[in-house]
# Entry
Amino acid sequence: MPGTQADVGIVVQGGLYNSLIRALQQFDLADAFGDSSIPILVLNVTYPLVPEQIADFFIGKQAVLVVEEGQPEYIEQEIATLLRRRDIQTPLHGKDFLPQAGEYSVEVIAAGLLEFVRHYLPGTATAPVEAWLAAARALVIGAVGLADRFGLSSGFVGLSIVALGTSLPELAAAVQAVRRKEDELLLGNLVGSNLLNSLLVGGLVGVVGQGVEVTSAVVHRGMIVMLLSVTVVTVLMVTRARLGRTAGVALAGAYVVSVIVLAQA
# Structure
């Protein structure tokens, strides 16, 4: 995928592409349609790598960042070997800017991009991203403190405050899609985000951690509310009902009521 900042590049696993684009949007280096100012090589198939494809992408660039989830960094190591054999001196970055392990959320990728941009794109404004990341960290820390102070369960804090904070990038992308009348992009984003959170994130939590046992009553109730909301939205989509202001206000109101009901738990 070409870009206007041709002197740098990003190599990314296919499954992390959407999160990468959202992170780049925070730097104003990409839009909601996936158009990136930085050239991106998307690896939908990570093995085997095609040496010629890798070499062509790296030649002439000031630096390239590899966005690869998991440990060890197999892709980064293989690329480093390919570059060495072909005597390509382009600096390669990956786990030196990004975490060694854990889920690569939009915030995590943005933090790694922040270091990359500081080094190789000094003209890019980073203050808004720094403020956003600081706010995200403060949100989590503050949410835990709020739960302790008012006796709220961590499940409720996760369902409300933390969920709201981590969903703000998705909200920004949705607003841009609506303004450009890209209805299919908006719906695809909503469905895809929920699939990713429910299946991929849930699966990674089970693989990376010791497993999660849902014991909180508020989380159980939250799951019931989620199933009901999915049913309502599915009916609207299947019947091709127009989601106008009235339906929008009703859905937003239902969310507020749901949070209040869950708070009672």
Remarks:
- The chain has two domains: 8-125, 128-264.
- The chain is about 60% helix and 5% strand.
- The chain has a mean pLDDT of 75.
- The first strand starts at residue 8 and ends at 13.
